[in-house]
Amino acid sequence: MTVTPETLMAFVDGELPADEARRVAAEVASDPKLTAYVEQQKQLSARLQSAFVPVIEQQIPERLERAVWDTPVPAEKNFATPWMARLSGIWREQTSRAGRTWIPAGAMATGIALGVVLAGTFGIGTLMRSDGGALIAQGELARTLTVALASEQSAPGAARIGVSFWSKDGSFCRSFTTQGGTGGSLAGIACRENGSWRIAALAATEAKAGGGFETAGADMPPVVRGALNDMIAGDPLDADQERAARNQGWRTQ
Amino acid sequence: MKAEDQLRGQMMAVLPRLRRFALALTGRSADADDLVQDTVERALRSLSQFVPDTRMDSWMFRIAQNLWIDKMRANKVRSGTVNDMEAAENVAVDGVRATEAHMLLKSTLCALAELPAEQREVVALVLIDGISYREAAAILDVPIGTVTSRLARAREALSTRVFGAGNPEDALS
Fold it and tell me: What architecture does CATH give domain B3-165?
């Protein structure tokens, strides 16, 4: 056998890149002992998780909720970071410009509050979901992010790719726009993370007359463009690099 | 909305998972919620140290883990195993009334209590919360290799306990 115990465990935990996972899966399938082992280890995780389901579903005790909202934040250390400055600027922009809502990149880390805002305002539950505190692309948006090439997009679907690039922290990221419902359209950046597309920046814009998309970047909201400039390492991928990245499943090596 | 309230909202969203993490570590719901409360207060008092555009959940898990280690050291429990019988008797999970669910949780907490603390942390993060090896390594401030070796030992110990005497490593020999 060629599968090491370490690799097998990483396989069980979903930590292997797609092609290696396929290779290991084939090997596991052909060996009853390995199959039994993998099955047992999956059961172990499932049992652990199911044991804690009641804890996750419990109502948060009031004292904890109070701690979150009432614990004072020291005033002298009041968010001197560029990000917070940007965030407050963004919210100012939102409140001063009716009809537009900027959703800051930093807020993507939240689940509940943002989910309510997004689902309520844009009805985008079909394109993104909240997962473990992050916002993850799904449905047509996830499909487009995974397969579409910026250079070869024909009929506008629900989502459209702008530019693809390497981020400074070493993942593949792609800017996108989505065809919104009646409320408008969304523009954002998604980065490949553990086999999904994590939304790293998102902004909502007014619907374009006629519902069409403009060329990449041309209608990118300033907030998303700013996030892109902060994140990008070097130049965007050219058509060949983008194709190669896609064909390798957006894996970072 | 104030930026600060945004971050408080993010913390609220993390609380259910943080409570689960704390319970997996401490084994007692009262201790777990004390730990969560300490974590929230510490996080808010040092909110300026939160690195922008990083994950609030990982940051809070890391604070919780550090506080827990501190508390264990203060109690001189160190990173050894918790006495099993003591843990079993102290397991009390408020609000979980369904008997079957309660028994499963109780037996799971006992199994976790038998693990060394450093393995329990990894199990709580990777197996129970589903956090990636890389993120777990960042939270615990250890190399990924340390995460995987602790996880392998913990899986072996838990498998033996949950599935009986069969050594899972047999399958690999």
Answer: Up-down Bundle (1.20)
